[in-house]
Design brief:
mitochondrion; Large ribosomal subunit protein mL53; structural constituent of ribosome; 2 helices; alpha+beta; Glutaredoxin
Length: 98
């Protein structure tokens, strides 16, 4: 997963829910030095009895926000969505000579 174009990651999930698996895997895919390199990561853990749906919001360097519906998406689909926009930004950087 291409993470160098991510600036903000916000998550909210119940760790005991089976639907939280996607969020946990996404957070595990972030590099260990993500915060040191300037990425803002906010995680809110919901109580066990919470019925609130899981939330994953990703913001890119160009200002685009992705609000991903984790009730229907698996980790591979989330990675595809994030990588799709990251590849677009990588092409723009390449064309600009950065």
């Amino acid at each position: 997963m291409i993470t160098r174009f991510l600036t903000d990651v916000r998550t909210k999930f119940n760790p005991f829910s089976p639907r939280a698996k996607t969020v946990r895997k996404f957070l595990a895919l972030l590099p260990p030095n993500a915060r040191a390199s300037g990425m803002k990561i906010e995680t809110q853990v919901l109580p066990r009895q919470s019925k609130e749906p899981a939330l994953l919001e990703v913001k890119f360097r160009d200002g685009k926000k992705l609000n991903l519906d984790l009730e229907k998406m698996r980790i591979t689909e989330v990675m595809e969505e994030v990588d799709r926009h990251s590849r677009i930004l990588a092409r723009k950087d390449e064309l600009l000579g950065n």
